[in-house]
């Protein structure tokens, strides 16, 4: 009897084990992970050479919008005016944003480059700022005035000095005027020609300095509150010296160029300029 009971126990154990094994084998196999069939689309990179202020700050406002349209914006900052054109001419960078068209035209002529303007974005009024002296109506005899040395910006500075009665330049000199074209100089002022980025550095060494808008901002000056005289928004200079987006000739109609133009001319950028620079930078429609 005991042997029968033991035999039944063994059979029962084997049956249960077999049943358990069968259940395990009947469990559905875990689902295999399938790769995402719609991977995120890779962004197309756009590179832009710019000066730090205000151009790089303005470009920062359009990065997200460009990303939404499939572009990754990379901004490469330069502290001077030559290399941003040379890298675009060489094809190393897609576009630049730092200059006005008269400067670009003179640069192309002097350097043999072929860069073109595709959009006018904003205007930066040129201003006369105090140095050792702070009164344009009482200029010391022999006062020193530092101005940018590049062709168009020097002429622009001299025209502003002329508009304020400090000098008179030869008729017809226009955008090519240099200090050699001064025909009247009642205060015997000395015009000190310096590379544009260096002018602000001599503010403590000269009586007055004439600064481009971007370099004035970098030096902590606001043309509305700190300048002794400035180009007016309604003046011809506002159109003549509007800051442009430049590309190498032949790239005017690329998708990258079109995307940059649309973003930089957007209402978002115009509002940012108005809110941030308080007249030191003025958006152009």
Briefly, what is this?
This protein is α/β, with parallel strands linked by helices.
Give structural notes:
It is a single chain. Helix content is 36%, strand content 22%. The chain has two domains: 44-124 and 239-283, Periplasmic binding protein-like II (D-Maltodextrin-Binding Protein, domain 2, 3-Layer(aba) Sandwich); 127-230, Periplasmic binding protein-like II (D-Maltodextrin-Binding Protein, domain 2). The model is unreliable at 1-29 (pLDDT under 50). It has helices at residues 2-26, 52-60, 63-68, 83-89, 101-111, 151-163, 213-218, 236-240, 255-264, 267-277, and strands at 44-50, 71-77, 95-100, 115-123, 127-130, 144-148, 168-169, 182-184, 190-194, 208-211, 229-230, 242-248, 282-283. It has 285 residues and is α/β, with parallel strands linked by helices. Strands 2-1-3-12-4-13 form a six-stranded mixed sheet, with helices on both faces. Strands 9-6-10-5-11 form a five-stranded mixed sheet.
């Amino acid at each position: 009897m005991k042997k029968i009971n033991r035999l039944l126990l063994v059979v029962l154990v084997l049956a249960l084990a077999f049943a358990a094994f069968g259940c395990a084998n009947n469990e559905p196999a875990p689902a295999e992970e399938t790769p995402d069939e719609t991977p995120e689309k890779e962004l197309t990179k756009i590179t832009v050479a710019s000066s730090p202020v205000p151009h790089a700050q303005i470009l920062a406002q359009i990065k997200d919008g460009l990303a939404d349209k499939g572009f990754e914006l990379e901004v490469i900052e330069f502290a001077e005016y030559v290399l941003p054109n040379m890298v675009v001419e060489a094809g190393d960078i897609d576009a630049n944003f730092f200059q006005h068209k008269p400067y670009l035209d003179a640069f192309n002529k002097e350097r043999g480059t072929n860069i073109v303007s595709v959009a006018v974005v904003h205007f930066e009024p040129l201003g006369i700022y105090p140095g050792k002296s702070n009164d344009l109506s009482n200029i010391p005899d022999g006062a020193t005035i530092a101005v940018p040395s590049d062709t168009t910006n020097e002429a622009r500075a001299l025209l502003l000095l002329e508009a304020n009665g400090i000098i008179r330049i030869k008729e017809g000199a226009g955008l090519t005027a240099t200090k050699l074209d001064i025909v009247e100089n009642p205060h015997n002022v000395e015009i000190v020609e310096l590379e544009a980025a260096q002018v602000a550095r001599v503010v403590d060494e000269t009586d007055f300095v004439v600064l481009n808008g971007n370099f004035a901002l970098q030096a902590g000056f606001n043309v509305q509150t700190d300048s002794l005289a400035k180009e007016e928004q309604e003046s011809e200079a506002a159109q003549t010296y509007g800051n442009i987006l430049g590309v190498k000739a032949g790239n005017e109609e690329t998708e990258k160029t079109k995307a940059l133009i649309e973003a930089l001319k957007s209402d978002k950028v115009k509002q940012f300029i108005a809110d941030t620079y308080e007249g030191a930078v003025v958006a152009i429609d």
